[in-house]
Description:
Rossmann fold; alpha/beta; six-stranded parallel beta sheet
Amino acid sequence: MVAPTSFFADYGCHVRILEEARVLRRLGHQVTLVTYFNGRDVDGLDIRRTLPVPWRRAYEVGSSRHKLGLDALLVGTALRTALRFRPDVVHGHLHEGALIGGLVARLMGRPLVFDFQGSLTAEMVDHGFLRREGRAHGLVRRLEHHIDRLPQAIVTSSFNAARHLVEDFGLPRRRVLVLPDCVNAEAFRPGVLADADRAATRRALGIAPDAPVVVYLGLLARHQGTDLLLQAARRVVDARPDVRFLVMGFPGTEVYAAQAAALGLSAHVTFTGRVPYGDAPQNLALGDIAVAPKISTTEGSGKLLNYMAMGLPTVAFDLPVSREYLRDDAVCVAAGDAAAMADGILDLVAHPDRAAAMGSRLRARAVAEFDWVRGGELLLQAYDRAARAHALRAVVA
Length: 397
């Protein structure tokens, strides 16, 4: 696996990489992951890292000019590891991983599988790294078009992403396989935190025992809708001053805490900073309602599955990927509309019985449809499809 990111850093993209590697190991396969030097090792996973660079110690999240140098180092690490490891399949995560993996796969004569987690061009626009009307936009889109054609098989985290590849980039449908984000429903479950521990933790955070708590877990960024979440929180608190918001994640905690203070929300919103993935279930258990204000239209939204498995009634912006997971068993409001999100939260706060029933339905679907063992079987199907396509190409050539 080629992961051009600071793995492991406790957020959605990394969780998908981790859980895919874990399920492949459980199914009897050997996995080696090559990634940047700055990340956290995970027990049981064979990780090979690039050499460190003195000018960049921060974790890389999203688009950054520093990634160009790190990716150059990753090429060397990936090639050395492949020569030693002799993989049967090269699995590239993200577009940079597919590009580097494509080079490795070609040199090694192996099939390439691309784990597509959103449009490269759209992500760079979302992160403010690229202007839609700028000259560079067309160049990056052509690069994305080229990378999308390197692998013999592509796995996407949603049907919406698969449609994007087929309809917007002209990929053959047979090359694209949907592997939804999945969830460990044994770790993420209602009751994971004992009532006494839940009460004690809420008390330590200054949350009243009977206060409705709205939780968010994920990256803090504009394209994640963090600004909109705070605007919605202001409206909720105006109507129900007893509601508390627990915002868990990074980066930019200080920036958004200052924004919350400017909105007069310091007494109503608690920022925890980064939450280790292993502690996520216990932290989500502190909440009564979950929110997903993400506004990116091409990326996945794995946090929804964690919310679902926890049995948390959820308010989300009405995006295609949200509907794929939540269907009609959540409050889906107009994308980008903070007032509508606030109204959705207030409705659930006012009707706890209906909210609890919603959470139960979401939990049942997460268990039935989004188990990682099933996800592992789909991933093996993608590997098999890539291997057959690679063999056919070799015969034709």
